[in-house]
Write the structure tokens for this entry.
Amino acid sequence: MNGTPPVEPGQPVLAEDDDALTLYFDDSAVQSRMNPARPLDLVLDYSRVMMGALLFVPEPRHIGMIGLGGGSLVKYCRHHLPDARISVAEISPEVIALRERFHIPPDDDRLKVTCTDGADWLAHMNDAFDLLLVDGFDIGGQAPALCTQRFYDDCHGALTGNGMLAINMHASDALHGAYVGRVRSSFANSVSVVATADGVNEIVFAARGDSFRLSEKQLHMRACALEQRLELELKWLARALVEGRRRDFAAPARSTRRHASGAGA
């Protein structure tokens, strides 16, 4: 493998081999991974789970993202949702400087990447997004400014009337349960938590308005209809989302390896 974790803590570095380009902040945190031969693929499991939000908003007009990373979520949404505008907040200019390496297209009338603090950026977005994806990590884990009650309140305010939020969280964070509790408070408990297959990450889905009121049968039918178009396995995710709404949150076992991206796997 060419490339090693960064000498300066917190600075992004690339590692490359025959079938993967990987972005790190340190040697235990995979921020993003891309197959150069298939740059539109969602390689990391958590990024595919995050796209489960499309079960509730299959045709978003405006998508907000906090964290760019290697841009997997950006590229996926841009390709599969051609009618959507995408606005991205990324705090690190060093991460943004890598966008060409990860085949992230330049800004145009459908895509805008802004170098800014995501929490400050979101505070000025009222009723802006049909879909909001939060994937903001640094070398210390989840960025503290993206875990406050005020931030989750701002997430609710930034969504349109039936908008959906999906947050990537590191499941073994000591404050993970508290963060989920804050999301529940901001969204009047309209929340579902789905773990990735390896248990390393959990995706917290939260709905404004009536988005979660689809029945299990309706959600299954929508998953069947969307799977081919979105190139995702959605039927299991539909079941997991329903189960997540039914059960009380319980913190999972800790893991030593984490996949933490700056919005984009």
